[in-house]
Fold each of these.
Amino acid sequence: MKRVLAVAAGFWLLVDVLRVWAPSLITIFGQAAATPAELMGAFALAVVVAGFLPLLVVRFSRVGEARMLRLTLAGALLCRVALQLVGGGDPQLWWSSAGVACAVAWCCLAASRSGPDLVRGYAVGLALAATTHAALGTWGAVWRDDVWAWLVLLVQSGLVVAALGWRVARGPAPTSSALAFWLLPSYLLAGTWAANPARASSLADTWGLLVVVLGCVAAVGFAGRRVGRRGATVLAGLVLTAATAAVMLPDSSSRWQLLAFVVGVPALVVVLEGLAGARPSGAPRFGPVPSAAVGAVLWVLLLFAYYAGYDLGYRADLVFVALPAAMTLVAARRAPTAAVDGDRLREDRQPRAASQLPRTRDRRAGDGPIVAVGMLALLLAGLGPPLTTPEVAPRPDGPSDGHDGLRVMAWNLRMGYGMDGTFEPQAVAELIAGQQPDVVLLSEIDRAWLLNGGQDQLAILARLLGMEAHFGPAADPVWGDAILTDLPVSDIDAHPLNSYDAVTGAQALALTVELDGTAYDVVSTHVQPHGGSGDGSLEQARDLARFTAERGASGHPVVMGGDFNLQPGDDSWKALIRSGLSDALSAARPLPTSPADDPEEQIDHVFLGRGLDARLVATTPHSVPSELSDHLPVVVTVQNRG
């Protein structure tokens, strides 16, 4: 049990450090969609390779594996504590990079010394990470500065410190090189969807959190029970591959996605158990440590191969369907046909006689603690979000006049990350609440990307603001645009737009709100920048003009806002104005909104359909100074003339 908890502590640390490191790559080291993906990927690879230095020290010095295992675990904990204290910028990038390097080194050494307990510890670590993340409403503890964040860090640190003090001998059987190799690549499946509460939250809010935690707890029950059965491994691999396709491929049916979250982590654990029970054919070419190191390189390459697809324009989602299939093929090819009990595995990997195995009754007796802890985890996931993410109150310095008309805010939130690379939804919510908008039109909303920390940004803001959230997927099912409002809503339409060869998809999310007896059609969108030949931005603008005209045919006045990536006077701008739309911010021009720390470009706009007037709430240009994103929000109050 000590070895299991020690492994769990290390993986829990790895998950939390990654939650900061990945978004730091695209907000501090570089800028997503601006810095070449190859350059950011090269930096990430260099960080992982830096994690091999402790392995070389072990190989060429008298420092033993056990001692270095403790040193790298302590180093990862130090970095995790530092990340709770630093305020973004370069210190965040370097502390998180050091934490990843330490965690990678620890993972490689743990693969050598943990034996069959490696998979069980991995499952427990995923369950701890998923449960705490769900209880915090998917707002990562490392980004918070409240009692809940420090409570999570205290528990995490206590577990790690205890693990550092335990003298745990090498596992009763060596870890297979196959398991060591696939261990970190398998986390791409867990972190991207299977053990990612934010991904399920985007489907079913609190119910989504519960199904992910249920799947993780079930996986703990599966882990360590039966190792190496080929039939079970193949079946689990097929289930895992099908579940991955159901969640990750575009246009997949949402009917099966919640079920996929229930079976995803248990199926992953069974496949890993199959890899753990793999029979070596002759002398292994690599031991577990070098195999795990090569797997770490594959892990970071696959991570960037997937997300770079959005910048480079290829079908990277197929990588995630191929990954579980490849793992299953390796496990099925090498796993024995007979099952071996994980708790009693001999070094020669031969199954014991039936009389030597623990009785079924004894094994079932160990299920009691798992069931009890599982019920507690579900309780935390269900009751935690409203408790740990309470609604904010409007700031006293916000506008307090009783505005007459529909107050609209449009803001590109850059996945929730400010100019310093920190995720601060509390400050974002307070700024929004201080402006007292009736409708908030949001661009670049992220609801689960591992690259952005695996958080449901929209659900977090909706809880903080006490508003109803509506989402329009663009790049994929969990990245796009949104509308927040506390007004009555009807006639919702998430309308995909033709991409015209832009690498990132676009959409127009429209709905009808009612205020003081007047119905308004509001549209949130994000025109994508286009490179190469042709003018895709112009074509998207024309599509938006047609779409707003169709919405206006109902007789309701139309308000459309967002990040249009075009400036007043552009051909795309003229196409929108010629269609009958008017510039709601004309009285405040010039009104630059990007970049937030030195605004030069006027690319965030609000357009009005016929019959609407706009007045600015303040006499100064009504963008709101803030570095909580790389764009400034714009606010306007519109009135219906008749």
Note: The first helix runs from residue 2 to 29.
Amino acid sequence: MNATIPASRTHRFLGGLVMTYGYQGLLVLAGFWLMPFYLRHIGQHDYGLWLVGTQLLTYLTLTDFGVVALLPLETAYATGRAGGSAKAEDLPEIVGRTARIVLFQFPIVMLLALVMWLMIPAQWHDLRGPLAVALLAFVVGFPLRILPALLQGLQDLAFGNGLQTMVWILSTVATVAMILAGWKLYALALGWLVTQVAMTPLYYYRLKTRFPGVLPRRLPPVVWSSVRTQLGKGSWFSVAQVAQLLISNTDLLIIGRVLSPTAVVPYSFTGKLPGVLGNQASTLMHTAVPALSELKTGESRQRVFQALSALNQAMLTFSGLVFCVVVVVNHWFVDWWVTARQYGEQYGGIWLTLAILMSMVVRHWTTTTSYTVFCFDHQRRISLTNLADGVVTAGCCLVFVKLWGLVGAPVGTTVGACLVSLPLNLRIIGQDTDTSIPELLRGMLGGWFWRFLLMIAGATFVALRWTPKSLVQAGLAALAVAAIYGLVMLPNLLRAPLGNYVRPLMASFRARFVALQMRFSA
């Protein structure tokens, strides 16, 4: 690893990344069974209602005006300036001020939750009771989100992600038991309640024992100038959250209203494998945020750009792998997963699959450009750009769903990114790095783009003419596609900037393997 990156920061990042990927892998395996189980015991209409209802819940996260979302970054900045959490004397003040603001916001959250419940459409009557439980869970857990956010900022990622896995296992077991008892949508709502509050004591214990002195002994007095400053910073996070919801959460709402809640289910099943696998790449950026924020305080802009370019190459490389594998096996996967169990045809078709995958790749690239602009201190600019992207995306989704049905939703997401975020973000990055747009594109995409086009053309050709008929065929097809993709992409992986990180890691793994061989041979 490059010497300019502190080893402890890298180790914290990799440790958290391993735990996060393990958690995501568990979700994939469990999802093979859970979603058909929910569909069988709840029914397609009610399950579609729940998928729409969970999207509504995400809009309540806007009520903190970005204050909790800002805490991990403020924590990382404080520890970066002081050289560690133990030396960050201003950190308890930051945490206490955040807690004070969140408590002021608490009545607003309760009021908005009540308004959201009262505004449920009459045709969604079956959702009213379960959504009331879920809204109550959100209100109760609203101030408690400070604790995991603080742990994320302290980069205690392995513990936080491990605990997240425990919470998910606990809530899933409880949900399955309640569904078997006949509680249907109430079981899903109560399971979600468990995820909001169950592990709060453990978060608190971890902070008190591992990071003593970080939590304030009492809440600081209200200093309105400081509150205004923090709300001003957080408001741009809030704008970014609105944008993210418009980009990623409106598709199900639009499909549920324009088509029907029943239509949400095949759309969700068709996009499940691309979504779950694609999220692994997005997790890379999310996990890296505290480290990048700390890196930003002590490194040059060019050094930060190099790190982000490497992350961009890593994300797009993995994104392309997901595209090529999923386009070949997705039809078989959905049929094996759901239709073969006699739930009706749930596969949305090859064109929906291609549209979802292309949207995934474009959005992964958008994500890295957005983080780059953010780390170059253009918080206000990136928030406004994302908001414009969200508005355009939502409008395009609405129009295209009316015109083309389910395929219109991912097409709208792709169009929004290409019209707004990508051109505006690339322009800012080019200005800040004194690089022309063509040079910037060559640096970010490198030798990846033409290799990606070659691979998706071949994978799509295969998918249009052949579908696996068994688990063995699907597994062999996925392995063959992944192997060919790896060989095609390997030269690009070893080139700078990603190669600056890949080659030392490969050398480290090789050294450990040789040491292990020598130990056993002795």
Note: The chain has two domains: 1-248, 250-522.
Amino acid sequence: MKITHEELVKALQTNFGFDSFKGNQEAIINNLMDGKDTFVLMPTGGGKSLCYQLPSLLMEGVAIVVSPLIALMKNQVDAMRNYSEEDGVAHFINSSLSRPEITAVKEDVLAGRTKLLYLAPESLQKTENVDFLKGVKISFYAVDEAHCISEWGHDFRPEYRQIRDMVMRIGKAPIITLTATATPKVQHDIQKNLDMMDATVFKSSFNRPNLYYEVRQKTENVDKDLVKYIKSMEGKSGIVYCLARKEVEDLAKTLQVNNIAALPYHAGMDAQTRSANQDAFLMEKCQVIVATIAFGMGIDKPDVRFVVHYDIPKSLEGYYQETGRAGRDGGEGQCICYYSPKDLERLRKFQQGKPVAEIEIGNQLLFETQAYAESTNCRRQLLLNYFGEDYTEENCGNCDNCKKTYHTIDATELLELILETIVQLNEKFKTEHIVDILHGNATNDVVSYKHNEIENFGAAEDEDETTLLAIIRQARLSGFLVKEVETYGVLKLSPEGKKFLKKPHKFEVKIEVHDEDEGDGIEGPIAACAAADDVLFSILKDVRKKLSKHLEVPPFVIFQDPSLEAMATTYPITMEELQNIPGVGVGKAKRYGEEFLRIIKEYVEENEIIRPEDLRVRTVAKDSTRKISIIQAIDRRVELDELAESKGMSMEEMLSEIEAIVYSGTKLNIDYFIDEVIDPDEKEEIYDYFKNADNDNLHLAMDELGEDYYDPIHVRLVRIKFHCDLGN
């Protein structure tokens, strides 16, 4: 089917409200409408869906879309119906429909009202559906999330490998496959399985300029930092990813007690609760979803403004996919990742016992992730290079490293000193110990091993400790040092490191320059969209939210943020003007436009702007009154978690308050709570540790006790008891 550029753009404007195509969209659509098989590799948020939605409206017959998730199908169908005046334009057939509902769908298909029919691969295999589709004119087949076909893909679905057989039984038509992630091996597997080796391949850039990338060091105050960050994003939707289900549950509770509307989501929850929490997020009844990677593929929410990784991800591919769920509408998208080397060690330990080849692959993936987290280079460049794409800009201007100021130092002599010291200690000590020696810190460990007497003790006392750490980190990334999990993270020289010691060569390291007046917040990322009148924009968002509740559809299905921003910039007051707003079009304007036009018209005529009170971040005053109330509550044996919740605090914050009270000399009895939440043997082991330890540092305690076996909350509780028993 031939169509001119002008006709295609007009169809885009009429049906979807956009004036131009993104990236390869037009070429992809033309290729498909010419009857050619098409392979689309496009990052999340790149506009894959439009590549089959628009041609389905223009071509004769109905397009069959194979999709893996019921939630994803429903979102896609709802979106298509809201772009059209005809509800029958899109349907799905899956296990969620009753027999009468399926019959009604088929009637719409036979009547020619339906242009898009979504099916799960399991539904496509059913004989009754195959027989029905044999009698229908098929315009083309679209295989969404096509990586599910490949056994080498990250989300393999065996049913997807039967799609080709079903296509041959129903009737041949062009095939378009779409995926946001496919290595060359996965791509070849998809094309071979679908017998489309001659397909035209369209590979889009993986660069998402609107996404801001930042890595933050994960400290014991990570929860406080996260709460502060999310409150700075008040009114904006976000996803927080954790590795473990228990972590998801605990973190969701922490956010809730800090007055953040957050809900958990993981595969261990029952389907009904999971679905309800997902819907609450889509309908903006909650601001934040705390989730494992089980959450994401079924979500088509374009206005997710931040994605936080509470734990370092297992691979850069997974990280890129998950961050890609931010800013899909082209607007602001902040991608924050908390990183601790201990998390990497934990992930490596999880691999122990697996086949050697699998461990090697896993370790290589983790090394790539580590290199990304610890690098001082442009984050965007590192990500794009990982996917085989060149990024030649020296400064992307929208990641933390490109916003920082660095100076380069010649670290050749310091690296020699570090390597010599490691060799002198027979490669048996960790990073912190090496730094203490070179910096001249006579810690208990250094003195106990008599390392304060070796030649290199204090040899770098004039250097900042962060500089020494940066050099060791870069030496590891450059292959001079290895840090083995099996030997508890001690530093060893690699063959390259030994060569360097014999024949040193220039070794440079970039060190961050800190401004003395530097604040503690993040520097704002680039936002792609902005309304000229932010008050009107806020009003329009409220109107959209009320309408979404009434119609029981997510707010972004009505109008996306960029459309509202355009309304708050150009003030459309007629239906014709509204249809010219990007992302509106004729169908949406007629379906939803009247209420928005009325509000905008009143606003323009009255011109009485009342600014809503700025949302304030609540802080809890740490005064003597609160301390007294905590002491009194403990005397009444109030459960500490309940006490924390009643005061709008996290458990960590409550323990900090109690520690401050105890360290100031007040004796408290929290045995009633400890006995309820901690096993007696565990309590005794932790107590014995503090009895024999040189100090009560939590980090040292967790290292000694083992963070995989002991909860830091439990360790802090027993530490409080220890101080009360012996110190007060």
Note: The domain at 211-391 is CATH 3.40.50.300 (Rossmann fold).
Amino acid sequence: MKLLAIIFSVLTGILAGDYNAQTLSVEKQDSIMGVQPTGRYRLVKENEQQIFRHSSVADWFIEDTMRHTRKRLGEGMFKGEDVQVRDAVMAPNGRYVAFAKDNYLYIHKLDFGTEVAVTKDENTDIISGIADWLYEEEFGTTTLFAWSPDSKMLAFVRLDESEVPTFSWDVYADTQYPTAESLRYPKAGCANAKASVCVYDIATKGIQRLQVTGDGLQDVYFPRLRWYKEDRLFVLRVNRDQTKMEVLDCNAKSTVTYPWYQEESKKYFVDYSLFDQWQWLSDGRMIVLSEQDGWRRAYLYGNDGIKTRALTPESIDVTAVYGVNEKTQTLYYQAATTPSTRDIYALNIKKGDITRLTQEEGMWSARFDQEATKAVFCYQSFTTPNTYTLCKVEGVKCKVERVLEDNKEVQEAWQANNLPEPEMMHIKGLEAMLLRAKSQESRAKSPLVVMHYSGPSSQRVLNRWRKRFEYALVEQGYAVLIVDTRGSDCKGRAWRNETYMSLGRKEAEDLIMAANEIAKRPDIDDERMAIMGWSYGGYETLFTMSQKNNPFKCAVAIAPVTDWKLYDSAYTERYMRRPQVNPRGYDEASLLNKAKDLTGKVLIIHGTADDNVHVQHTMQYIDALVRADKQFEMQLYPDDNHFLRKGNNAKHMHNRVIQFLQNNLKQ
């Protein structure tokens, strides 16, 4: 995986035309985060230390390639102190670098080698320019600041966490007395950080607040900023229930804003993340990705914000928009040809003609250059590891120039293991795949493990190169069924929202049905079936084991949510709205109310330092089980987070799961 990450970093440079693939130092390129237009200065990141899922601190340096010197970013402001910083972005003109340290924003001036503070709030609960835990986890971003095209202004989101409740946990290892860690963590129905958007002027050193939170709109999210002119930017505003998304056109100088685009639903949530796929054309028109008509489709909008027409067809979800070649008027995008596959298409915007550029069945993705004339295509499937190919694209034609990486050695090593290819199937409308060892084909019956995630808009049944724990189970003699329940992705908006406002029940019905159907096969032992899942999958596993008609003898739930009132606001309210307006939905979805109905043998696994699904979920559920006189097994991992990768934990956990299954599914 490290090799693939390095390769993709190299490919980014090739597409931009900045590097020679034959002479490039891969190790060095992996840390370069920005290059001045003249090429003299470059921004380098080293010694990265992870904070949460996406965030990190690191040593950032500005290298002068002409004088062969380097200067640590932040050194001018924090002499003699810890100068590791969060995010850093070089201005388009290459004269400034904006960076974040702690909760504040700063600017380094390359011309003079000096640094100034942009924000100086005395209240340490105010965060400027970087994401709080909620924005990072649920809106997939750490950087909430952006340079104007002329580098004269810096826009940033300001988050006031003063009213957000604090969650804390103990750290046990290597200390005589436990120490405490804490973070501001808004749970469902509780106070969020108050968000606003500001603009800093380089010349005047003044900060103005944009008019984006008027009319009582304090409880909103601003997950994206995007400049489109020297003094104009789009601000994405999402209401708390995430049923309304607005793109605000903001004048950075006058601070006046007006809604350029609006999408609202009374029935479902609105997917804010599609904004990341929008494409701006030079004449002011835009390619907008939206599911307003029931499928994720690309639409052409005029520069007045009025929809012109739909570009992509109904009944197929567009999953990425890569770019537009304006000379040939060609749009390039990825779509789910089937729920389990992805292909790349070229669409003539004028004529409406669509050409499929990829043919081999599997998962295709791409990265295009700015003009959409070159692209790196990536292909993978069950039997083929990631293959990267550099292509030249002209309209609807695509010509392979060279293979950058075929991972042939990886494929050959895998084939030597003689492990099976999944058997794809449809089970009464559900996508599923079954894995059985080739050596088991002659056996009469195999114990079955159902593996799933089941969360809204998720997918695990994909024709991709994925060699994980399920193959270890196959080697142990188990058949493994992977299922995508109702609410999964790439089958239209209505299917994605099947579980809206009522998480848990329909997914459990689907898992039970799928297991019962597969158990009808003569090679599956219907008396020896287990189910396991992680995170949302852990929640749904316990929910399923609380249904009287479930066929499972035992279950493994890793880092499970047990009550949605304990989980974060942005994720939970996206699918359930707030507990104050949907109390019945929360009560019916809570595992704490179902402890008395738990059946079978259950192993619950959790890390005590999980900042995402707090170990509090497991502790409250265990308390409910004890009160209901229900027995269970439990495995805790001290001071580890949601992913359980610390030290030897991953290996230990997987061996623990295998031992649990052997103890409960043996003949």
Note: The radius of gyration is 26 Å.
